Amino acid sequence: MIVKPEWLRVKAPQWERVGSVKEILRDLELNTVCEEASCPNIGECFNAGTATFLIMGPACTRACPYCDINFEKKPQVLDPTEPNRLGEAVRRLNLKHVVITSVNRDDLPDGGAVQFSRCIEAVRHVSPQTTIEVLIPDLCGNWDALAIILAARPEVLNHNTETVPRLYRKTRPQGDYSRSLDLLQRTRVLAPKVYTKSGLMVGLGETDAEVRTVMADLRQVDCDILTIGQYLQPTAKHLGVQTFVAPEQFAAWRQYGEALGFLQVVASPLTRSSYHAEAVQQLMQTHPR
Asked: Which domains, from first to last, does the chain contain?
């Protein structure tokens, strides 16, 4: 068994602040990916009063062997009150930037696109100054559904490629690398003012050359923002970690990504898709659309 290195240790959270955020989430009956996916940064983010909201969940219709989100439960019927409850959470937490994501809902014809749209609209209604990022699944290639989400005008559309093409069969058996790239490229065409974002997890057996190829592919579809973080095995039944990548390698990828032309590259062992997502506000000021 590979021993977790020192650089992956996180400080114990201040549970008073964490508890207050959890209390709001429980009161409004909302899920967060921070909790459902066992994110290592939950303490830091909750202490800062931020959270990534998980809508239409917490049961997923896919069974990706790296992910800790539940796939054994039956997906819920969509709740028409969820958008307003999410908007209320944004108001109570006084969020300047909010991330809205979802489980895969392949059981829905639109993959949940209308629910995403309604959640964006609800946040806009109660907090028009809050910037909104949506982290969406691949929608099974339903580009009409993608257009519905983009019509609600999120500032950032995030869709993770997750890993290198060679490892898709093992890590994302129901995903498709080309489809993910296509989604990001179509977003640029349908909504030129929206910032596009994608993320990679490393430590699953990929090579440096493969990571760099994915980075280049993402720039080919004009992706603006990239996150790269270390994969951590949630439980013994999930895929094992093949390598703990050193911080120096993340720094090298960050430099390479900046040279490729990404507007922002966040790369470190503890980086996750929504980690420090609020930094996009500064990017929007320096690179307005």
From this structure: 6-286 (3.20.20.70)
237-289 tens-digit pLDDT: 888 899 999 999 999 999 999 999 999 999 999 888 876 677 888 899 999 98
Spatial distance between the Cα atoms of 183 and 187, rounded to a whole number of angstroms: 6
Helix pair 113-126, 82-93: axis angle to 10 deg: 40
Find the distance separating the first CA and the last CA of the chain, reported in whole Å.
48
Which three-class secondary structure string do you get for 157-186?
EECCCECCHHHHHHHCCCCCHHHHHHHHHH
Six-digit token string for 164: 């290198």
pLDDT at 37 over 50: no
pLDDT at residue 15 tops 70: no
User: Between 280 and 218, where is the model more confident?
Assistant: 218
> What is the side-by-side order of every strand in the sheet holding 156-158?
31-32, 52-55, 97-102, 131-135, 156-158, 195-202, 225-230, 264-267
> What angle in degrees, to the nearest 10, is found between the helix axes of 82-93 and 15-27?
150
* Percent of the chain with pLDDT strictly greater than 90: 61
